[in-house]
Design brief:
heterodimer, A: alpha+beta, four-stranded mixed β-sheet, 5 helices, 4 strands, about 15% strand, B: alpha+beta, GMP Synthetase, Chain A, domain 3, three-stranded mixed β-sheet, 3 strands
Chain lengths: ~100, ~80
């Protein structure tokens, strides 16, 4: 991956405790899988940064390499990749996500 | 674009011969699938690692030829 792109991604995950690389915006998700994670985060009432990969082709491809994960959405917490849609939903259903994000 | 259900099944079985695989074509368009995979190979691995194993089995087709594959992995 291009160093500039890597730097750009590192910058985003460092500056935002919870960030979601997604298709569309938190207000207007443009893919069902992105929508599903947005709904979970909104339900938990946590603040998160949504990064619309449709607006940045470099990030769209770079983020797949960054975590060796071929699909979008991707959720990060404190620079750590938590998972895509299936894993995040499963963690939420088991109450694990709430624990990670410090929600009682 | 798109990938046949049988092809997904055989790619996964090739990488994980013991896997019990159930695949559903969600939209009937060969592009949106849901798969439940049970394998001993998943034991002791995190969910992220388990899903990565499935993606690797698909030889880079995930996110390219194949748009959507909802995954449920079970330690067998």
């Amino acid at each position: 991956m291009n160093e500039n792109v890597k730097k750009k991604i590192e910058d985003i995950v460092e500056k935002n405790e919870i960030c979601l690389f997604m298709k569309g915006t938190p207000e207007v998700p443009q893919c069902g899988f992105s929508l599903a994670i947005v709904n979970v985060l909104k339900h938990l009432k946590v603040n998160f940064k949504g990064i619309n990969v449709l607006e940045d082709g470099e990030i769209r491809e770079g983020i797949k390499e960054y975590s060796d994960w071929p699909t979008i959405p991707q959720l990060y917490y404190k620079k750590k990749f938590l998972g895509g849609c299936d894993i995040v939903k499963e963690m939420f259903e088991k109450g694990e996500l709430q624990k990670i994000l410090y929600i009682k | 674009m798109g990938l046949k259900l049988e092809e997904i099944n055989s790619l996964i079985k090739k990488a994980m011969p013991d896997a019990e695989v159930t695949i559903e074509d969600l939209a009937g368009d060969e592009n949106h699938y849901s798969a439940t995979i049970k394998s001993k190979a998943f034991v002791g691995k995190s969910k992220i690692e388990q899903h990565k194993m499935v993606y690797k089995a698909l030889n880079g087709k995930m996110g390219n030829e194949l748009h959507a594959l909802a995954l449920n992995t079970i330690e067998g």
